[in-house]
Amino acid sequence: MRPSEGAPRIALIGAMQEELSAVLALMPDAHCETVAGRQFWLGHLSGHAVVAVLSGIGKVAAAITATVLIEKYQVHSILFTGVAGGLAPQVKVGDVVVGTELLQHDMDASPLFPPYEVPLLGRSRFQADQRMTQWLLESAAQALPHAQVHAGLIISGDQFVSSASESQRLQSAISDALAVEMEGAALAQVCHAYGIPLAVVRTLSDRADDDAHIDFTQFVKNVASGYSAAIVSEFLKRFPKA
């Protein structure tokens, strides 16, 4: 049964194929539909109706994906999994960061609006859903017992941060940011507009420094997909059945 004809679905989003491939492997009944140049995989996972999709990289790609999920597939919740670069000194490669808030670090319409504030919305920070965030924290701790799990601010921008100087600049400008990536805050803005609960979890693939491009490539290939699948599986055990 297609989602427009049946029960609402939970959306599972990743930014890259490597990040979501292990999740798709857990959905043997999935069938694929192509919309807006994206492949949406509709099936079931842990007893839930889900739709899994690769968002593409960057804020615009993420926003398009979220809008299609909400408008066409009528999802009732969105979970985003993937990797990020660590910013705060206490977060290390291999740690997990669950986003409680999300902010676009490259949004700057000053002097008309304060730096980072989204014009006409009166806010720079978008909150993740509290219940889903708590389930994610529990799920990450259960699925990855040897990983450190953090909760806090994740920042997003259309830039792969891969220099120590840029990383230090972001740390100085946004002192409570734990990690940096390229999609989460755009998803959060779309979900805020539609009133859709969102949760974001990122495994740290690098330290957003001069070696980030090397660390990121190796981590995504060897680790990220398995981490995502393990966390998603535990998360869906905690999510109430429709």
Counting structural domains, the number is 1
In spatial order, strands of the major sheet run 5-9-8-6-10
- Low-pLDDT stretches: 1-5
The total of helices stands at 6
Q: Which CATH C-level class is it?
A: Alpha Beta
Tell me about this structure.
By secondary structure, the chain is of the alpha/beta class. It has a single domain, classed as 3-Layer(aba) Sandwich (Rossmann fold), CATH 3.40.50. It contains 6 helices and 10 strands; from the N terminus they run βαβββαβββαβαβαβα. It has a 5-stranded mixed β-barrel with strand order 5-9-8-6-10. A hairpin with a 2-residue loop joins strand 2 and strand 3. Helix 2 packs parallel to helix 5. The chain is globular. The relative contact order is 0.22.
Please describe the structure with a list of short key phrases separated by commas or semicolons.
alpha/beta; globular; five-stranded mixed beta barrel
